[in-house]
Write a structure and sequence with these properties.
The chain is mostly helical and 291 residues long. It is 77% helix and 0% strand.
Length: 291
């Protein structure tokens, strides 16, 4: 039983969910400029649970859909290793969706009760669900290369906006932080497709398959530069000062030095470093607000 429970948890890909657990309160923090109340804290906790169960359901659905590919690419995952059955995985997905929708509706109800705008929370959630379902089910955007990468990156970036919507507060900073996350995650998705070209053959038509791995890596670097531009704008146009850009130095250095590893086709290393840069960038925004 313990082994099966562990396999179900692994199906959710908890490492990928860590960033989401951090990002929801960060989005809220950016939305209210760090001016927290006890009610805000409780609302954010509920919506962290919403996002974690949403992402867990999506990751599990992805593993169910990719079971054949993972036999080659990731044979140790729960389904190809036969630690759980497909039926058990589908039941688990149903439970996760029920919990996620229920906690989202709870958050919307309390926003409405407090006289705050509830519709941004619901709207972002519904859009994210649509992106998730069209990614894995019809029309299966995950098999269509760049459009699938865009869908995933929109979902990741939407967590920032969702965090702000959790406490009924949206502003320009939330938008630009979300755009940083979008472009850097999009670059990471393209690089991961370069890494998985052999395993994806016959199953997906990814950007590297269409334009070649080298051109795809160059495209990913352009996306990284777009993310850097979005990171710069809050320090140029406000609400921050240009000299506070110093707090983003670690993230900037990690991103601008990725051209070498990309040229050498070190895809796994680049993917990991982009994730690190995303965390450093979010930390940089936090430091800017408190220093």
């Amino acid at each position: 039983m313990a082994g099966k429970t562990l396999a179900l948890v692994e199906l959710m890909r908890p490492k990928n969910m860590i960033l989401a657990a951090i990002t929801v309160p960060l989005g809220a923090h950016f939305g209210i400029n760090g001016d927290w109340s006890a009610n805000d804290g409780m609302a954010v906790v509920v919506q962290i649970f919403t996002v974690l169960t949403f992402m867990g359901a999506g990751n599990a659905m992805n593993d169910i859909k990719d079971a054949a590919i993972d036999l080659v690419a990731h044979p140790a995952r729960p389904l190809p290793s036969e630690r759980i059955t497909e039926t058990e995985a589908k039941r688990f997905v149903g439970v996760l969706w029920f919990l996620s929708v229920g906690s989202m509706l709870t958050g919307a109800f309390f926003l409405h009760s407090n006289g705050d705008a509830w519709w941004p929370l619901t709207t972002i959630y519904v859009i994210a669900v649509a992106l998730m379902l069209t990614y894995d089910l019809g029309p299966e955007t995950k098999t269509k290369g760049l459009i699938g990468n865009v869908s995933i990156s929109l979902m990741v970036a939407a967590v920032i906006g969702y965090g702000a919507a959790t406490i009924g507060s949206m502003n320009s900073l939330v938008f630009w932080v979300a755009m940083v996350v979008f472009f850097t995650n999009l670059a990471r998705e393209v690089v991961k497709d370069c890494q998985d070209m052999l395993a994806d053959e016959g199953e997906r038509m990814t950007l590297p398959m269409k334009i070649g791995a080298e051109n795809a890596r160059m495209t990913a670097y352009v996306m990284i530069m777009a993310g850097l531009v979005c990171l710069y704008i809050p320090y140029w146009q406000g609400p921050f000062n240009l000299n506070q850009l110093l707090y983003q130095t670690p993230a900037i250095l990690v991103l601008i030095t990725l051209n070498g590893p990309l040229f050498k086709a070190e895809d796994a290393r680049v993917s990991m470093r982009i994730r690190v840069a995303m965390l450093l960038g979010l930390l940089g925004f936090m430091l800017t607000m408190v220093m």
